[in-house]
Amino acid sequence: MTTLTPDVFQKALDILNQGGLVAIPTETVYGLAADAENSQAVAGIYSAKRRPANHPLIVHLANSDALSYWASNVPEEAIQLTKAYWPGPLTIVLKRSKRAKDFITGGQDTVALRCPAHPIIRKLLEAFDEGKGRGLAAPSANSFGQISPTIAEHVREDLGEKPTGAVDLILDGGPCTVGIESTILDLSSSTPRILREGAITASMIEAVIGKTVQQGSSSNSPRVSGSLKSHYAPQHPLTLVSAENLAGKAQFIARHFQSFALIAPTEIEKRFHALAVKSFAYSLEKPEDLRMHLYGWMHELDKANIDHILVVPPPCQSEWFGVLDRLQRASVKK
Prior knowledge:
By secondary structure, the protein is an alpha/beta fold. Helices cover 33% and strands 16% of the residues. It is built from twelve helices and 14 strands. The strands form two sheets. Strands 7-1-2-6-3-5-4-8-9-10 form a ten-stranded mixed beta sheet, sandwiched between helices. Strand 8 and strand 9 form a beta hairpin. The radius of gyration is 20 Å and the shape is globular.
């Protein structure tokens, strides 16, 4: 893992220009970056992650000026949203231009585009762009289906750095401040639709574009990253349990001489703290609290000697939808 000195910055830029892989920090999660127009470089991403080849990637851009390079049509809603939320944790799906090849889009006629906010990736993108609208493909820097990384150490433990690992260079930009992947919004048709929940909510989007936003994919929605039923999954079984059923679930586990870790709202965690091998509390008043720490807690629990992870989920309200989506996918049995 390496911090961004001028020499390291130039090394990272050289690696990207030469078709290599650089693990980079973003505000959401750490990404595995490669030249989005280099088919061999992108193939390296799929190989390192063991990612199915038909899963499309998000192209990360230096600014909204690059939209017209990658999209054949940029609707007014996209322009409004980039002004409001770029750089930031919002990915926009548009009809692709000829520049967006099948190896990026998974063979679809759409492309997913984002402008991240972390200063390190922004600096790299601005230098990589060269005023030509160039972009970096950068899915999460982890093995496919596993927990996304929110610190550089997570990347090192999973994918590793060459010569023994899969990544040419891992840049350490500190902890991710958002903590879950970006919201993905489909603007490729007349109906705006959220295909993946994140920190940018439907109401936040509606406030900008003045249109109702649908939530959840439809039969003709494009495929996007992170949409499998089982995803973001820790090694230990993760079960969502209501506050009302937590005591019964804990007793059942104890009767079978098994152990559990707990993630729960503060008041509930206090009551069950002594029964859990490890426990983490989050505030119901601050959705960003659980969002920012969830993956880090899952990584820590992967190393713990436990049998189960029990999670008391937050309420089903829009500000929690991103975290609820990740928890639901993490709890699906493989």
